[in-house]
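Hi D.,

Good news: the full-assembly prediction came through. Inputs first.
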Amino acid sequence: MINANKMTAGETQEIISASREAELRALQWLTDRLDYFNPFRAPDAQTLNKTIKPLAELALTCEVANDSAAADRLPIYRNFARFIWDEVFSVEAFRENLLERASGGYAFSIYASLRKCGFEHLAYRQKLQELIDNRYALGYEQLPFVKLNLLHNLKTAGFTWTKPSFKQVYATSQLASHPDLYHVTVLDAYAITHVLFFLTDFGRVEADCLSDADRSYLRRALPRLTEYYIRRRDWDLSAEFLVCLKSAGLEDLSVYRDAWLLLLASQNEDGSFTGPDRLNQADGDPVTAKGAETSAAGEKWNSFGKNYHTTLVALLALMVALPPT
Amino acid sequence: MNGQTIHLESKSTVERAGKWLECFLRTRLFELNQQELCVGLIGLSCASRALGSCPATTDFSATVGSLIGALLGKWTSYQDESRHGFIDDPVTRLLSAVFAAPDNTETAAYRHAVQEQWHALEEQVTLASAHHRVLTCRLLAALLDESPELPDLSLLSGFVPMSSFSHYLADAASIQETLEVLTTLTAHGRLLPELTQPEVDFVQKTLPFWTFYYIKERDLDSVCPLARTLKYLHLEALSEYGEAIRYILRQAREDGSFCTQDMSCKCQSYLLPESIDVDREMRLPLTVASIWTLLECLHSSESPFHHPFGVLIDD
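Then the structure:
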């Protein structure tokens, strides 16, 4: 049974005012740790691979902020984008590294996000265009939600392509098959949230390829999965599903209000949001992890690896999924 | 799967589970403590009731007799330990007597003995147990006494523990307490409890979610009481109830026992061979919980709680 329970004006106000404070504290946490996003300043030589994903996700957060952040916070996001551009993307070796691994998608995503924030590198763009023209980028075998991410990047960056379309890729996704919720794993859950992110531009546009049956499935599945991951104290997926609830127009459900109140209450004193253990991406290598445990710097790095993603997702939710005032 | 198919599947599953349980209890009889013997007795009694007039191969009476002999023997030989055990968990003791068939000399003697233990220890149980558990004991004792009068269950009004976020944040102990309160309020499905509107809303919203959650967590131990409580509250129409029954049936292993997350158990037993006795610590309680749940949910006319007393729900 899915309970509809419209949020009262008082509850909306409570969430809105708490969210403003929460966003500023999360932004401060990120500001204090910007160097961790810089592959050239990471604490050991293996960190290029570990930092490129956080860097791309920070860039994406800036991209969303460009259209959706409140005016008084936009300068903070712009500073982040400026940092990525000046300190990282402007370094030729970094761009070359991205292009060498273009199949990973970061070559397109970081560029698309920075371009949306007002930065342009025409020579780099030309190289991406070649990857599109020679069909490498679009022909590369990828999971459907990863392919949708690529299409979203191409669209954001203003590239044109003929096929596949969003609709064609969506039809091959797991979400389109309406999976049984009892079997949905954590990875499946991320696939579901990401498909919705890219189809709806993070809840900011209507997804025109969803059928009535899809919408009916989402109305049943999204609240249940949100409740499930809240109960698991998985704030990473809870925040992602909060964005999805908003994307699917399900703000009238009580779980939407509850998810907001509990997500905001989960914020750590330092401003971060705790990620699940599986997200300790800075801690992937047991040998380096063992060494890292012994130093304060190592601990800080591990804590960053665990919490940065959830903090970015919480910021994303704060920008695109708050109840309307 | 339609109702009739699932009913038949349940019978054959309970039969195999009963046989596994009987074999386990016969083999390990002298190792088990009183609590485990009571649990075993509940399981075999529930299996016998669910199978009803099945072939004589499923007659567990000899093993039930041995269990009762062992329980009564321990009661006489270890009186202090037995009294403490009863006070610590009176509900399991009383349930073991309620489920035991009344039409057999040995089981009738056992029921009588437990009745006497309850009457001797009621005061101490009242001092040591939570309020709702004392009422549960009084309900079970009334059933054992075949008393026409039930304890005043309205004393549990307002006892459904609800906080605004317990849907998401309640721990396993508070969920267990909630289910115990609801079970007693319904007298195991025979009474229509007088719940307040917020309690009704809470039950209709939260019980299905908890059921969904624990099925997804592969937690058979939690799914069983949730399925029973949904049945007691006449919420069988919910999809989560049907899924819970199917989930329970799927946990039956080839040898007849019930278990869950076998791979984790196996890995742990390889790593720490001394750490866990899987049959005793996992399969015994899970098999009994599953048989009991299948009896209550799919063969409820054979349940001791089916016999009407108090205010009845129209079937």
